[in-house]
């Protein structure tokens, strides 16, 4: 199959940061009488196609992929074990190819509890690709939006206790310096396939003004065309960020 051509969209309407909730793997597998893990396995190639779709679109700078949430530890021991080993192996299998595509891989997530081998693999991928200038792929593993804010608060309070910051100097900008990836821009397009219409604790702070696009396709069936459709939908939205234009008000002085 030739890789599908992206739609022609004015670059100013292409999202700079796409947050992608890779959801629906378990249902995809169960519908086929397969173990849930078969759905996760299918998702591996789909994620790589999503990266290719972002590269093809051009102007997408960040793709954040939700791979394992801080709440996913609630799953069965065997699924958690699978997901840990799988995350590690996916990174190992694809890091050279991502590097060749000039993709910069970064990790966003909480360290405690995460398997050491996963952290090691993430750090190796980060190191290998750190100077790349193409799309940044943020692998969100053991990530939770609330956990991120708790961790940021802890770090800030430590600095405050050490006399390095004064509470009255804390701003939105300075708080964001304590997030897992201070360089992560705000989310423009929050994309969730699988039919669920919720954030499930993904990038809460960064998505304050994100445009939400929900699709019914399960992630293992997700294609570059689904991403293009989501971007087309995004391009049609009127983003106001709280502002307003009154077309009929008399000139105010
Ligand atoms: C998303 O698919 C992958 C992870 C959460 C790791 P799910 O495993 O949540 O699949 P569904 O939503 O149960 O179908
Ligand atoms: C969100 O999906 C987490 C990931 C895709 C990694 P979940 O399947 O865990 O979320 P809920 O349980 O449907 O809210
Ligand atoms: Mg799910």
Strand content: 5-15%
Distinct compounds present: 3-methylbut-3-enyl trihydrogen diphosphate, magnesium ion
Q: Can you give the helix content as a percent range?
A: 40-55%
- The CATH homologous superfamily corresponds to Decaprenyl diphosphate synthase-like
In the CATH hierarchy, what is the architecture at level 2?
A: 3-Layer(aba) Sandwich
Q: Within the largest sheet, what's the order of strands?
A: 3-4-2-1-5-6
Q: From N to C, what is the helix and strand string?
A: EHHEHEHEHHEEH
Output the CATH class name.
Answer: Alpha Beta
Shape: globular
The figure for the number of domains is 1
Q: Give the distance, in angstroms, between the N- and C-terminal Cα atoms.
A: 60 Å
- In CATH, the topology is named Undecaprenyl pyrophosphate synthetase
What are its keywords?
253 residues; metal-binding; Z-farnesyl diphosphate synthase activity; alpha/beta; Undecaprenyl pyrophosphate synthetase; binds 3-methylbut-3-enyl trihydrogen diphosphate; transferase
